[in-house]
Automatic annotation (TrEMBL):
<keyword id="KW-0460">Magnesium</keyword>
<dbReference type="Pfam" id="PF00224">
    <property type="entry name" value="PK"/>
</dbReference>
<keyword id="KW-0479">Metal-binding</keyword>
<keyword id="KW-0067">ATP-binding</keyword>
<keyword id="KW-0547">Nucleotide-binding</keyword>
<dbReference type="InterPro" id="IPR015806">
    <property type="entry name" value="Pyrv_Knase_insert_dom_sf"/>
</dbReference>
<dbReference type="InterPro" id="IPR015813">
    <property type="entry name" value="Pyrv/PenolPyrv_kinase-like_dom"/>
</dbReference>
<comment type="similarity">
    <text>Belongs to the pyruvate kinase family.</text>
</comment>
<protein>
    <recommendedName>
        <fullName>Pyruvate kinase</fullName>
        <ecNumber>2.7.1.40</ecNumber>
    </recommendedName>
</protein>
<dbReference type="InterPro" id="IPR001697">
    <property type="entry name" value="Pyr_Knase"/>
</dbReference>
<dbReference type="GO" id="GO:0005524">
    <property type="term" value="F:ATP binding"/>
</dbReference>
<feature type="domain" description="Pyruvate kinase barrel">
    <location>
        <begin position="90"/>
        <end position="399"/>
    </location>
</feature>
<keyword id="KW-0418">Kinase</keyword>
<keyword id="KW-0324">Glycolysis</keyword>
<dbReference type="InterPro" id="IPR015793">
    <property type="entry name" value="Pyrv_Knase_brl"/>
</dbReference>
<keyword id="KW-0808">Transferase</keyword>
<keyword id="KW-0670">Pyruvate</keyword>
Length: 399
């Protein structure tokens, strides 16, 4: 299966939707537009957040400027020029995550030609040096085709996990049993395990839900003491070493930026990514924290990257938190993976619409992510449901 077929399919579906007249009211292109062209075009305006908003005439101007800037660096780039120039008419962009199968120059170029506008660099995996090599390759392709390609650095965020068990294969928890989470460093068994996060114990109350291993095991807090939680197993299953924990009912008093994230952020500023994606956003103050860090570490004269907040916690929807989060960042990602774990799956489509509507009302770019065309990892064509999913995101106004 071609690694870039999904990008081509998305591009085709996006083209069909836009051709039918369903494009966003505001075209937020921001990092997708070269900074030099932003200055040249009188029809570009910049919102208070720094988001570049184009009128319909400026799209034509930018297309003309791009055509004039197209460098004949190779026969391939010349042959691709008309197709690339048409992208200015495409309101909806495609974001592609680079992984082990798509890290060489040939594949990145193919992904770009297939329709990718943004490449996501996932700092959860691999070294900083590997990300620098990927960014250098992206800039090389960008220069070859004289067409802007945005690079988004995605910070890992806090990883909340249980400790280790005496049995290497883990333990089976039965529905209805009591299971304790505590701060004891001793290896766990079928009655207890270490939870090395006192902030979870502090924030949890009786009746709160804890989800283990992406929701495969569901626990309900039935008792709380100093340094421990007693939980009733509502959905049983196997739990093993270092499985993740989600806390949908609790707002944790922790920073969204771990020491690793702070190091990665400083490195992103050094190498010059266009966007920084912040994981584990719980409250508007989290956005202020990363802005302050950028101010502190941004090299003199360097380009200031835009901040994209990943919405994946239920606390983002409490009161006017979503409105404030959107106002304080430069863009939003609907991170449906963790959002679908912490919220009921049937709620995610409505939450997606709510997020997109808020972003449109404030003129901020919004990305819909996770499990887009996922079946195409194995299949040459998407399912009908996946095609509808892409169409729905575009109809709703995703950028």
């Amino acid at each position: 299966m071609s690694p870039f077929a999904g990008v081509s399919t998305w591009a085709a579906l996006a083209g069909l939707m836009i051709g039918a007249g369903h494009s966003p009211i505001i075209t937020s292109v921001d990092a997708f537009v070269p900074r030099s062209l932003q200055q040249q075009s009188p029809s570009c305006r910049t919102s208070a957040s720094g988001t570049v908003v184009l009128s319909s005439t400026s799209v034509g101007e930018l297309e003309g400027a791009t055509n004039g800037a197209m460098g004949a660096t190779s026969k391939k780039s010349v042959a691709s020029a008309p197709k690339i120039a048409q992208r200015w008419r495409k309101s909806t962009k495609q974001l592609a995550t680079l992984g082990p199968a798509s890290s060489d120059r040939e594949m990145i170029e193919k992904l770009f030609l297939a329709g990718a506008d943004v490449f996501r660099l996932n700092f959860s995996h691999g070294s900083q040096e590997q990300k620098k090599e990927l960014l250098d390759t992206i800039r090389s392709v960008e220069e070859q085709y004289s067409h802007p390609i945005a690079a988004l650095g995605d910070l890992q965020g806090p990883k909340l996990r249980v400790g280790e068990f005496s049995s290497e294969t883990g333990e089976m928890l039965e529905e209805g049993q009591i299971f304790r989470l505590d701060l004891d460093e001793a290896k766990g068994d079928n009655k207890r395990v270490m939870l090395p996060h006192p902030e979870i114990i502090e924030a949890s109350e009786v009746g709160h839900t804890l989800l283990v291993d992406d929701g495969k095991v569901k626990l309900s807090v039935s008792g709380k003491g100093k340094g421990y939680l007693d939980c009733t197993v509502e959905v049983g299953g196997k739990i093993s070493n270092r499985k993740g924990v989600n806390t949908p009912d609790s707002v944790l008093e922790i920073s969204p930026l771990t020491p690793k994230d702070r190091s990665d952020l400083e490195y992103m500023l050094k190498i010059g990514v266009d966007w920084v994606a912040l994981s584990f956003v719980q409250r508007p103050e989290d956005i202020e924290e990363i802005h302050a860090l950028i101010d502190e570490h941004l090299p003199a004269g360097a380009f200031r990257p835009h901040v994209m907040a990943k919405i994946e916690k239920p606390s983002c929807f409490e009161g006017d938190s979503l409105k404030k989060i959107v106002a304080r960042c430069d863009g939003i990602m609907v991170a449906r993976g963790d959002l679908g774990v912490e919220c009921a799956p049937e709620d995610v489509p409505l939450l997606q619409k709510e997020i997109i509507d808020e972003c449109r009302s404030q003129g901020k770019p919004v990305v819909v992510a996770t499990q887009m065309l996922e079946s195409m990892i194995e299949s040459p064509t998407p399912t009908r449901a996946e095609a509808s999913d892409v169409a729905t995101a575009i109809y709703d106004g995703a950028d």
